[in-house]
Amino acid sequence: MLTIKNLHAGIEEKDILKGINLQVNPGEVHAIMGPNGSGKSTLSSVIAGKEEYEVTEGDIVFEGENINEFAPEERAHNGIFLSFQYPVEIPGVTVTNFIKTAINETRKARGLEEMPANEMLKLIREKSELLEIDRKFLSRSLNEGFSGGEKKRNEIFQMAMLEPKLAILDETDSGLDIDALRIVSNGVNKLRSKDNAVVVITHYQRLLEYIVPDFVHVLLDGKIVKSGGKELALELEEKGYDWLKQELSV
Ligand code: ADP
Ligand code: MG
Ligand code: MG
């Protein structure tokens, strides 16, 4: 599904990613861990196509197609979802209306007609039930006065509705209280399937107790320095990133 080859990227004069290789297949959950400043958010931004970062070398191939030059919207339309790190507030636009628009824009980009209203309602009902989201929440203004947990709930709802092939969840170190943690992990676990893949980016092992990854990769100074199974996350939690730095003498 996603193949990243020798990816180098950065901003202006600063190299941040220094040769990333990563292969994500349908049905897999990958965790990317690493200390603060190692380039985790940059990697997710570059996969999603954020324009402030420049790819200087390497390829991002999604479903057999090189997407290096694709705009963020094109990537989203092709099925790549990036959780919002800093969600915008849109007063007057409800959670439901926002997602309806997003879905219909995606369909339009794929040459499809708008989703019929009854089908949309059915989808909203199905996904909100799955994620235990109540009606009141759906009619609130987007992100306006949302708690951390509610922002997460909205994000996961968006993910559920858009049914991306590849979801990248950049869980910033702050703001993931136990409530949010449960919302994110329940949502991801309910949406896992053999056809989609999830990349979870996290500083802490804690999230991975709930979302059990198939693969764990450690990012240090812009490179994946170690990959393994879920036990690698436990080892890191126990020994810390400094242990790995020493072991690799970087
Ligand atoms: P992480 O998510 O692992 O904490 P980031 O990808 O946010 O790491 O950052 C990696 C490095 O790149 C850091 O040194 C950070 O300061 C720098 N960096 C990332 N984005 C920018 C930016 N837009 N402008 C300047 N420096 C940036
Ligand atoms: Mg950071
Ligand atoms: Mg980050």
Textual characterization of the structure:
It is a single chain. The protein has 250 residues and is an alpha/beta fold. It has a single domain, classed as P-loop containing nucleotide triphosphate hydrolases (Rossmann fold, 3-Layer(aba) Sandwich), CATH 3.40.50.300. Helices cover 40% and strands 28% of the residues. It is built from nine helices and twelve strands. The strands form three sheets. It has a six-stranded mixed sheet. It has a four-stranded antiparallel sheet with strand order 2-1-4-5, covered by helices on one side. Strands 7-8 form a two-stranded antiparallel sheet. Strand 9 (166-171), helix 7 (178-191) and strand 10 form a beta-alpha-beta unit. Helix 6 (148-162) runs parallel beside helix 7 (178-191). It is globular. The protein starts with a strand and ends with a helix. The model has no long low-confidence stretch (mean pLDDT 91). The structure holds adenosine-5'-diphosphate (ADP) and magnesium ion (MG) (2 copies). One magnesium ion binds at residues 40-41, 172. One magnesium ion binds next to helix 1. Keywords: ATP-binding, Nucleotide-binding. It holds the Pfam family ABC_tran. InterPro entries: AAA+_ATPase (IPR003593), ABC_transporter-like_ATP-bd (IPR003439), FeS-cluster_ATPase_SufC (IPR010230), P-loop_NTPase (IPR027417). GO terms for molecular function: ATP binding; ATP hydrolysis activity. Belongs to the ABC transporter superfamily. Ycf16 family.
